[in-house]
Amino acid sequence: MAETADSQTLEEVHASFRQQVADAAVGAGGIAALFDGLPPALRAGLVRRLGRRDQRDLYAKVEGYAPVGLVDLVPSERGDLEEVRHLGLNTLPAFRVFEKRFCRLPGTDAAKPDRLAGYNFQTMAFVTGPGYFVAVEDENTREVLVDYNRLPEAHPPAWPEVRSNERGLSRFVYGFMVDRVRRVSEHVTIGSAARKGKEMGSYFVLTRDDG
């Protein structure tokens, strides 16, 4: 009997992921199918298991594969200022487990918003700050830019107070940064961070939580 995604262990799925990413004969569509075929809990588990090499290779693998837009991060059926969580793991030395939380701003088109508000949720936010940003689409590359140089004009009431990313310890974590986000699958995206236009060799992977 063929093994189903539900019966696979996280270790088996991770091994399959690594094999497919390393195989030049497997395109980005094959990686998308792997993630799309997983139940949500296992997909989130795989995302939060991917190390630096995994994320670096995945970022390169999916370049130019398929567009990702703001509506993929906050689906059109979500309301204005309704939080959408993206569970993530980054390659930083610390604060690796985190979430990017997005929302659509009032007055924007639900089907094609021109910007989203968001911040980074993690356990050390009281030290680093919330890392607020504005996300926009890059029409040239069909990717999303997460711009920490811009602060949103509104946010859900339950979110923390907006703070500048250029003061205090926030300056060293989020200051002068823009993340570039690429599509992996329906729920999963992969990003790379740049500071003042220079790639940092730092990555993060996210999966949208539709729960």
Summarize the structure.
The protein is an alpha+beta fold and 211 residues long.
User: In percent terms, what proportion of residues is strand?
Assistant: 25-35%
If helices are DSSP runs of H or I spanning 4 or more residues, what is the number of helices?
7
The 3D shape can be described as: globular
Number of strand segments: 8
In terms of per-residue confidence, which ranges show pLDDT below 50 for 5 or more consecutive residues?
none
CA(first)-CA(last) distance: 31 Å
Question: Overall mean pLDDT score?
Answer: 95
Order of helical and strand elements? HHHHHEEEHEEHEEE
Q: Please state the CA-atom Rg, rounded to the nearest Å.
A: 17 Å
Q: Please state the structural category.
A: alpha+beta
The helix content, as a percent range, equals 10-25%
Major sheet:
8 strands, antiparallel, barrel
Question: Which strand order do you get reading across the main beta sheet?
Answer: 1-2-3-4-5-6-7-8
Total domains, how many?
1
